[in-house]
Fold:
Amino acid sequence: MLHAEVRKGGDSLLFVATHTHQAAKCPLLTPEGKKMIKMLFSDENVRKSGLKIVGAYMSCPKDKSTDHKGFFIIDADSALTVSKFFGQMAVDVRPVVPFSEVAKTM
Structure:
């Protein structure tokens, strides 16, 4: 799911991309899956995509019995840029702001 937002003038935004897959279908269980993940997150591929990965957190391989979740904090010009980076991997992309910015409005 894509929650689109684009900032004018080429400014970047922060997004959280969330990916979920079944533990039994984790790409890290196969050589092909490991190769795909290494290629996707290679410095060269990230650089070509025009985004910056600020942080990435995964529940696998710690969580062996349920769905694995990946949370990726990404600096990009649009949600579409983030979605295109992940290609065929299903991700939910949402624009986010630091909580400190939200707190200022309280």
